[in-house]
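sorry for the late reply, my laptop died twice this morning and i had to redo everyting from scratch. anyway the thing you sent over, i finally got around to it. pasting the sequence first so we're on the same page, its 256 residues, then the predicted structure underneath. double check i copied it right bc i was rushing
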Amino acid sequence: MDRASFDRLFDMAGRTVVVTGGTRGIGLALAEGYVLAGAQVVVASRKPDACEQAAAHLRGMGGAAIGVPTHLGEVDDLAALVERTVAEFGGLDVLVNNAANPLAQPLGQITVDALTKSFDVNLRGPVMLVQEALPHLRNSAHAAVLNMVSIGGFIFAPALSIYASMKSALMSFTRSMAAEFAGDGIRVNALAPGPVDTDMMRKNPQEVIDGMVSGTLMRRLASADEMVGAAMLLTSDAGSYMTGQVIMVDGGGTPR
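ok and here's the structure:
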C-alpha cells in the first residue's frame, strides 16, 4: 500500500451520508465524524428545530449539512428524506439507520400499541428507508448501509424484550441485505453499542445504569464519540471487504 491509498481509507470527501436520529447522542457524534472526514451530511429526526440546530452545528464545523425532519414510523417521510437528500447533494452513498424507539415493557404487560410503535420505528422504518435509498445506493461507487443495533440482541434482556427483539430482527435483515445487495456493490453491516452515556441511557434509574456498567469489563459507560471509529470502519473504504457483519462496541460486556 502506498501513502495515497492509505490516506484514502477513511476519507469520505464527496460522499453523501444520511444519519437518522442524527441530532443528539450517538447519531450526532457519527454525523460530526462524517463531516470531519469530508462527507456531506443529512441529519434526520422528528423535531424540525433539532434538525436545523444540528445541521447548523455541523456547518459550523466546516461541513456541508442539512436537517430533514423525519419520523421513521411514518412511511411517507422516508421517501421525502431520500428525495430531499438527492435534491440537495445529487446522490446518496451511505445510510446510517440510527434512530430508535426505546420503549420497554415487561413480558406479561406488553401492549399492542407499544409493540406496534417499536416495530414501526425500530424495524419497519429502517428496512423501508433502505428500500427507498436503494436506487441511489446502486448508483454509488462507495455504497454502504450501517444499521445501529444493540448488544441487547445478544444477551438476556429482561424488561427490554420489545427493543431487543426488534434489534435482533434488524441484525437478521442486515445479513439478508448484505447477501442480496452484494451484487450491486452495496455493503451492509451493523454496529451493536453497549451502554453509552446518552439521553436515552440517562432516563434509566441509577441502579439500572450501574448494573449495565458492572456488566462490562471496562467498568464504565462509553461516550458517544467512541462509536465513531467503528462506524467509520464499516462505512468507509477502510472496510471495503466487510459486509454482513455486526461489530460489538460494548466495553467487553458481551461474551462471544
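Strands lie at 16-20, 40-45, 65-69, 94-97, 144-148, 187-193, 246-249.
thats about all i looked at so far, will dig more tmrw
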